[in-house]
User: What shape does this take?
Amino acid sequence: MIYTIWKKEVDSYFSSPLAYVLIGLFSLITGTIFFNLLVTYTDGIQAIPQNYAAEISFVEEVVLKLFANINFIFLVFIPLITMRLFSEERRLETLDLYWLSPVRDWQLVLAKGLAALTLILSFLFMTILFPLIIWGVGVRDFSLLGSAYLSVLLNACCYISLGLFCSSLSSNQIVAALLSVLGIMFLWMITWGGHLNSNYLVAEVFTYVGITSHFERIMRGLIGTQDFIYYGSFILFFGFLTVKSLGRRNW
Assistant: This one.
């Protein structure tokens, strides 16, 4: 049943112009950012004495900044993807068809989440060209490339789970998208609040609850158990809330 719903959602994505427009925009934006970062790095290397050039890290100046920008782009793109998953079906009243079938709420949430993740993976697949370009220009430093992809993918999973919950709250897609964007921004702001707080305990709590600190640690290869616990708990928590939100029909 999960596979059937997943296939239906994926087919609906790629049978409409939205998926191709978003993939094209994503490729254009990330390609422009990558080109600018690469040019800036090259110009910086040529503008300083040779003995200082080795101190400028390609990974820091190009790779990590690129994936930080991809994470920011997902702030807008993922709400656009998830906003219709439940809102549109609630508006068209097609959710009733699922209620009349043997499919469980958690199966429906999981299938739709996996469909959104499939589309996100197609976005990230387009960035494989960047490592090939880096290799072609003679750069062989790929030390943090894997962890950078992992960090962006984990953040995307969190954004999708939050977006699913927001989509289940309203039949209006715009409202669902705005709620999702505000929710993601709030997760970022919590981390910033931790940095600004003078109380050590409060700062540590804010830093852990916020998603940015976990993203930055994994992106830099500092992968810890607490980060995977955070991401797993986040995804399961909002998945649980989405299931409960769909269960409101029984109240």
In short: The chain has a mean pLDDT of 84.
